[in-house]
Design goal:
39% strand, RmlC-like_jellyroll
Length: 183
């Protein structure tokens, strides 16, 4: 497994495993504490694992947490997703930058998203399972959602949106979220 810095987002990494394939399918390591430690992250900081299942066209995001934020490792364990990270840390050298990834069950690549970055994805296959390893217990009172179609973010979602949560449909613009954060 190798770790590569994501140039668009300071502190973000892409972890690429080495799948071993044969006639039975494949095997690969999707988390390696030594590799995580080698880029300065504490592998023991992750306290919660979650998974979501989405169907083609479903969009989830753009989400982040207020307060101390939330760092996470995100991987598509089955199917394929278009994954998006937006740096919303005011003191970051990559503030307001965006990064896009295609994550899939075939490659098992994982993206490390630092606290303070917004995250969202769209399912590209009929079924897409997305796994999250999160560094804090979830507190719904800290949930922040930004409109997925905010022109300021200009995210090039690859498919028409077939479904999303009510929370995502009613999300405020980035400007509104930032104004509320400052006020």
């Amino acid at each position: 497994m190798k770790a590569t810095e994501v140039p668009e987002i300071a502190g973000a990494y892409l972890f690429e495993p080495t799948p071993y394939a044969d006639e039975r399918g494949f095997f690969c390591r999707t988390f390696d504490a030594d590799v995580v430690r080698s880029v300065g992250l504490d592998p023991h900081a992750f306290v919660q694992d979650s998974v979501s299942r989405s169907v083609r066209g479903v969009l989830r995001g753009m989400h982040l947490r207020s307060g101390a934020g939330e760092a996470k490792l995100v991987r598509c364990s089955y199917g394929k997703i278009f994954d998006v990270v937006v740096d919303l840390r005011p003191n970051s050298p990559t503030y307001c930058n965006r990064a896009f990834f295609e994550l899939s069950g075939e490659t098992q690549k994982t993206v490390y998203i630092p606290a303070g970055c917004a995250h969202g994805f769209q399912a590209l296959t009929e079924v897409a399972d997305t796994s999250y390893r999160i560094d804090r217990q979830h507190d719904p009172s800290e949930d922040v959602t930004i409109a997925f179609d905010d022109p300021e973010l200009a995210i090039p979602w690859p498919l028409p949106v077939t479904s999303m949560s009510q929370r995502d449909r009613e999300a405020p613009s980035l400007a509104e979220v930032l104004k509320h954060k400052e006020g």
